[in-house]
Write a sequence for this structure.
């Protein structure tokens, strides 16, 4: 069964991932506070924010209440700490130094809503960085790519040069684990791969 689809995200990367599936969808960027709660663990954080985004989206403009709302939130975790988006060049440099030569986790919370039903999941991928020299860090920050990305890098862009290996879903690292979105949509009665 098909249904109108609404992406609850302003992320161009999430839009591009859904477009790769050949889907037609509307976009509404929800206004949600994405600040972690005191003591909140990274997986709980992305799950909560994704569900908040799905619940915050207005269905105005869709054809019916059976629209499929897709929301997600992604963060990087290193040694138990949330590594968010850098606020400036110095913050990006510090993040990249912390990630250099180490393995970190990328968590994406996914929430799909259709009518009064919702389903959530969290997907984790492991990313190992090469050892980064100061020159490479300066080069990468100068590309401008780190500034709206959790962890300060984009694996689908020039940031791929920073990555030694990946374990798990690459689309998860980009911001939307497509296999999980397709599975959750099926459980809500919507076939995305038609």
């Amino acid at each position: 069964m098909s249904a109108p689809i609404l992406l609850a995200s302003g992320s161009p990367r999430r839009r591009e991932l859904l477009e790769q599936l050949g889907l037609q969808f509307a976009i509404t960027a929800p206004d949600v506070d994405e600040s972690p709660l005191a003591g909140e663990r990274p997986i709980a954080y992305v799950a909560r924010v994704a569900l908040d985004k799905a619940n915050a989206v207005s269905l105005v403009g869709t054809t019916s209440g059976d629209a499929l709302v897709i929301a997600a939130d992604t963060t990087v975790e290193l040694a138990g700490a949330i590594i968010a988006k850098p606020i400036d060049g110095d913050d990006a440099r510090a993040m990249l130094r912390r990630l250099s030569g180490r393995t970190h986790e990328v968590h994406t919370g996914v929430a799909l809503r259709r009518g009064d039903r919702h389903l959530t999941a969290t997907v984790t991928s492991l990313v190992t960085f090469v050892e980064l020299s100061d020159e490479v860090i300066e080069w990468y920050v100068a590309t401008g790519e780190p500034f709206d990305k959790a962890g300060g890098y984009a694996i689908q862009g020039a940031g791929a040069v920073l990555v030694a290996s990946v374990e798990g879903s690459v689309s998860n690292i980009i911001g939307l684990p497509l296999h999980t979105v397709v599975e959750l949509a099926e459980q809500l009665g919507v076939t995305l791969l038609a």
Summary: The beta strands are 5-7, 26-27, 68-78, 81-83, 103-114, 117-129, 163-167.
